[in-house]
Amino acid sequence: MTGNRDPETIDGFGDEWSRFDQADLDPDERLKYFQDYFRIFPWETLPEGARGFDLGCGSGRWAQLVAPRVGHLSCLDPASAALEVAKTNLIESSNVSFHLAGVDSMPLDDDSQDFGYSLGVLHHVPDTAAALASCVRKLKPGAPFLVYLYYALDNRPVWFRWVWRSSDRVRRYVAALSPGPRQWTTDLIAASVYYPLARGARWAQRLGIPTQSWPLGYYSEASFYTMRTDARDRFGTQLEQRFTRLEIEKMMTEAGLAEVRFSESAPFWCAVGFRRG
Asked: What pLDDT is stored for residue 2 in this prediction?
């Protein structure tokens, strides 16, 4: 481990986004998931020509929808392979800059950004609290920061947590495989676990059966491409941390954010706060 980063995890994401560059993702599906993550983001508070950053941009799938709404967007990622994918996906966006950098080496001045976001990234960093504080330092006073961190299943029933513990043992084994077998295995998980459970949830919804606690019910309308991507993301990553809502709120507050609020809908947990003046 070098600095606040895990090289094996970074290499893994570089491989993931090289395989899943999101070019085959349906635009309507991309927009649907974008809205799920950004539903609590306060777009109306941004100044005209706002400058902000995407920490851990990956393939640039979210940056593609953020860039047209702002003045300038800095896309940062420590995986060179991922950054090359983002450059390709955003080739027509003239207001985007790309930086090969992680949260421990962000090439942005402190107090310089009008907004920032990091989705599905900081729980893969060794010290999540320190990483969050690093992001907040780049913001101007009053600027919003949106974060998505894996939840500790704190809003789920006990049996759901037992199922997750079993799946996490599988993750630890799969994530340690070499890239090829890792990909084959996560594709198998997508086909044999994600797809049947997700489509089962879809039929349950159509029959009026509640699916709030249905495992993988969030993917009821997802394409198989998204299931493959997220199965790789979930089972192919060595370093993963999970946090309760209270833990996330505490980290955000201690990092210097105020007026913290959470999305009450999946994915959990998405939260936004404003840098204190």
From this structure: 62
Maximum alpha-carbon separation in the chain: 54
Structure tokens at 54: 């995407």
Quote the CA–CA distance of 84 and 154 in Å, as a whole number.
Answer: 37
* CA-based nearest residue to 213, from 155, 152, 149, 151: 155
Q: Strand, helix or coil at 96?
A: strand
Count of C-beta atoms within a 10 Å radius of residue 225: 16
Phi, psi of 247 (to 5 degrees): -65, -40
The residues of the chain scoring below 70 in pLDDT are: 1-2
Q: Could you identify the residue written with the tokens 């993988």? A: 216
Q: Is the preceding peptide bond at 215 cis, omega within 30 degrees of 0?
A: no
Rg (CA), the chain: 18
Cα dihedral 234→240→244→246 (10° resolution): -130
- What is d(CA 214, CA 268) in angstroms, rounded to the nearest whole number? 14
pLDDT digit string, tens, across residues 178-225: 999 999 999 999 999 999 999 999 999 999 998 888 899 999 999 999
CB of 260 within 8 A of CB of 249?
yes
What's CA 56's distance to the chain center, in Å?
A: 8
